[in-house]
Amino acid sequence: MSDISKLTELRKLMLDMERSVGLQDLSSAERDIYYAATELSEAHGGVTTTYLLKHMLVADVSRPTFFRALKSLVGKGYLAPSENSGRGQYTVKTPK
Amino acid sequence: MKLPALARDTLVVSLAYLLAIFATFEVVIPVQDIFFPVFASHASLLFLPSGVRVLSAWLLGWRSVVALAPGVFLAFFYVAGIRALEPSRIFAILIAITVPAATFHAFQLLRWNIAPQPDQRPCWPCVMGAGIVISILSSVLTNYALGSPSNDYLAYFIGDFFGLLFLMMGLMFAFRAMRRRGL
């Protein structure tokens, strides 16, 4: 496991804790997409819808739920459409 | 020059362990002595290094034994001085560095693999559960090795458990703050 992935795993664990103690208002689909986006973002420096759909954590999420959750994550400020890249690209954010 | 991964892990984990030791002995125990002056045991009821041990074993597996070794030895030296080289304390050092990794490995053998993996959801209550087992084993074995009085067994367990819980909560808020600053 690389240094980045160790840090990512630790961050994922803490995100799970945040959600359990009620500091995160995400549904399970939103949470899984956000975990996947966090992993992809730290590994590749960006997130695309295509890569998100291929991620193991998102495999069980149906397409309509995926796109609804993606839209909701953008609405809640967890993800933001990338300004520099094309359509379907996102950056991971944290809502204020 | 780039350090090998194990050397980097050892540096980070041992430094984290020493920081947690300083915080425990220089802040937590003096505060504990003010609020619980009649508490008979000298053990900390909030032993943060326990959290470092559990999380490093969760992240690194058996590599945590090497990563923790310098930090744990220096911590014993800081607390006990040259008596850290006594056989009972050497045994306690070995317990401190091997029990967490051995416990996670035992869980894996029992088909309960909670080790972190990409593409898998984390489970913080599982890590806490493992932390409780590690606390019990460490408390019993360490106090047996050191020949401590019976009330130390419970104090060590409480300290280890709350140490892990508070460290995880601290990390949770630290990561949250980092994300809010775009780090």
Report what the structure shows:
The complex is a heterodimer of chains A (96) and B (183). By secondary structure, chain A is mainly alpha-helical. Chain A has helices spanning 3-20, 28-44, 49-54, 63-76, and strands at 47-48, 79-81, 89-92. A three-stranded antiparallel β-sheet of chain A has the order 1-3-2. In chain A, strand 2 (79-81) and strand 3 form a beta hairpin. Chain A is globular. Chain B has six helices and no strands. The longest helix of chain B has 31 residues, at 5-35. The mean pLDDT of chain B is 89. At the A-B interface, helix 1 and helix 2 of A face helix 2, helix 5 and helix 6 of B.
Secondary structure layout:
The complex is a heterodimer of chains A (96) and B (183).
Chain A lengths: L2 H18 L7 H17 L2 E2 H6 L8 H14 L2 E3 L7 E4 L4
Antiparallel strand pairs in A: 1-3, 2-3
Helix pairs in contact in A: 1-2, 2-4
Chain B lengths: L4 H31 L12 H13 L2 H18 L6 H23 L14 H23 L3 H31 L3
Helix pairs in contact in B: 1-2, 1-3, 2-3, 2-4, 2-5, 2-6, 3-4, 4-5, 5-6
